[in-house]
Amino acid sequence: MEMRFENTDGVLVAHVQCYLDRMGAENFKYVLSERMKKGKKIVLDLEKLVNIDNYGLDALLAMAQKALENDSVIKLARVCADMKIVLDITGVYRVFDIYPTVEEAVASCQEAIS
Question: Which domains, ranges and CATH numbers included, belong to the chain?
Fold first, then answer.
């Protein structure tokens, strides 16, 4: 599991690559936790995420919980159709705001800051 980070208008954008599965879930949580400061706004760009399993879903939910406890925000962007189905079936979609583009997710974070 790889992630590339960039800062866009004060929002941390994490580009998640390939798989969020048993092998990568703990690393995902560790790396994201290290970057999640109190009040941080984070957008997870899932365009290149091709597979997620129950460990990956648990990791997403764990990070959502950490964000709540930390007064932070995590939003999802560019979720492919297959991943949307998984998020819908499991109900995980109810935990996150999901946007069609990274720009819209970042703008939403900016509105929350204003």
Answer: 2-113 (3.30.750.24)
Is residue 80 within 8 A of residue 47, CB to CB? The reply is: yes
The 97-99 sheet, strands edge to edge = 2-8, 11-20, 41-52, 73-77, 97-99
pTM strictly above 0.85 = yes
For 20-56, what is each residue's pLDDT tens digit? Answer: 999 899 999 999 999 999 999 999 999 999 889 999 9
**DSSP bridge partners of 49:** 18
CA distance 17 to 91: 22
